[in-house]
Design brief:
alpha/beta, Urease, subunit C, domain 1, TIM Barrel, 2 domains, four-stranded parallel β-sheet, 37% helix, binds zinc ion
């Protein structure tokens, strides 16, 4: 067959229809306060110029060009669009059953198409809460996350920028314990089971082919007892880095974290139990930690849902080990990116529930400016995308405005009045 496409493209390139492209629209945004995510400080009386989907200038002396659309946010605090570093948009757990039942139902009864469709309002709820970027790390069937991402990118549905992993690469059994012998084939609908070093390389190539943006592995497959071998993880990292894809590891124990870090991963998810020496190793190797912690409000909702008889004090005590390891990670100068791991129905929108992770960090005692950095600058570092998570010339025009000062009171983040994604206004509820 002759290929007409190059000829047609050649015609379009010289066609006056295409050459007469519209000049990009220019917006001038006046920010009362502006969060400098690189330094973790608030600046005052800043103007941001946006041309098309890109920030072209930021400062106090910026000249506003003639014809620019003025957006006056002088009564508000302007921040880079928030980044969620650990979501599961295509999964919903009722909170009252075990994981095996949820995963089996998702694979066998719900199916990938319905899962992707149900992910649409969850993705939108993130945007409404000021999250312009979401890193979705598995439990999305067979690349249904890639389908949702493409639908958002082409404008068929509304949502944040998605960075998706496709099915997580795991050792035998994935995270699905307890299936009867002969029925374990369900697991392959949700996880890519790795059987040796060559298979590990093949799995990464499959993910590259199907459009994954990053590779998620399970160093340990908790609640299952299996581990990937260090050799398998090394092969995954080597193959993924060849394709400029980052690798992040679910790792809940110190042993699982150390093995993954030794294999060369870029990120550690959860890291619930971790030694100081391992945190030190992570810092040396520039491995980012995503502490998926729950705040008191969500923990209380979950306890109530499960009809557990726990006092407020007992609920607080449950969080103490996570608080303590978060502060040790900070002391070790390990980079922390904010990720919620929220997939439970607790009566809030997914975006609202996900944001509670920032309050969990505050309850642990992390300074508020560092929490905001974890949800902006550090999230961008984890993704390896310097055009995200900052309000600087050259960055993508993803920004939000909130009422109040989140460096004094984090609950200001709950009052999002404006969201700009890729230079486009997607939400505005400002008072005139
Ligand atoms: Zn997760």
């Amino acid at each position: 067959m002759r290929h007409l496409l190059p000829l047609l493209l050649g015609w379009f390139m010289v066609s006056p229809l295409v050459v007469r492209a519209q000049a990009p629209d220019v917006k001038a945004i006046k920010a009362g306060k502006l969060f400098d995510s690189e330094r973790g400080v608030l600046l005052t009386k800043q103007t941001i110029l946006v041309s098309g989907n890109t920030i072209t200038a930021v400062g106090s002396e910026v000249q506003i060009p003639r014809g620019a659309t003025l957006i006056d946010l002088s009564e508000y605090t302007v921040l880079p669009g928030l980044i969620e570093s650990h979501s599961h948009l295509l999964m919903e757990h009722p909170g009252t059953e075990d994981n095996t039942l949820t995963v089996t139902k998702a694979v066998a009864l719900e199916g990938d198409v319905l899962r992707a469709l149900r992910g649409v309002p969850r993705a939108k709820s993130y945007l409404e809460e000021g999250y312009t970027t979401v890193r979705d790390v598995g439990n999305a069937g067979q690349f249904a996350d890639v389908a949702l991402k493409r639908a958002i990118d082409e404008g068929s549905v509304v949502g944040p920028r998605l960075y998706v992993s496709g099915p997580g690469l795991a050792a035998e059994g994935g995270q699905v314990p307890g299936l009867a012998p002969g029925q374990t084939h369900f697991i392959a609908g949700e996880y890519r089971i790795i059987r040796g070093v060559e298979d590990a390389r093949l799995a990464v190539r499959e993910h590259v082919y199907h459009g994954a943006d990053l590779i998620k592995i399970y160093s340990n497959s908790s609640p299952n007892k299996t581990y990937l071998s260090v050799e398998e993880m090394k092969a995954i990292v080597e193959e993924a880095h060849l394709h400029q894809l980052k690798v992040t590891a679910h790792a809940t124990t110190d042993l699982a974290i150390r093995r993954a870090v030794r294999a060369g991963v870029d990120g550690i998810e959860h890291g619930y139990v971790v030694a100081d020496s391992t945190l030190q190793l992570m810092r040396e190797r520039k491995v980012v930690l995503v502490p998926t912690d729950m705040d008191f409000l969500l923990a209380k909702k979950q306890v109530d849902k499960l009809k557990m008889n726990l006092s407020r004090e007992q609920i607080r005590d449950l969080a103490k080990p996570y608080h303590e390891r978060l502060l040790r990670a900070r002391r070790a100068n390990t980079t922390i990116a904010a990720g919620s791991d929220m997939y439970m129905d607790l009566g809030l929108s997914r975006g609202q529930a996900a944001k509670r992770v920032l309050f969990a960090y505050a309850e642990a005692g992390l300074p508020l400016n560092e929490i905001l950095q974890a949800a902006t600058w550090n999230g961008a570092q984890l993704l390896g995308e310097p055009r995200l998570g900052r309000l600087q010339a050259g960055a993508w025009a993803d920004l939000i405005a909130v009422k109040g000062n989140p460096l004094e009171d984090l609950s200001a983040l709950e009052k999002v009045v404006l969201v700009l994604k890729n230079g486009q206004l997607v939400l505005s509820t400002r008072q005139p």
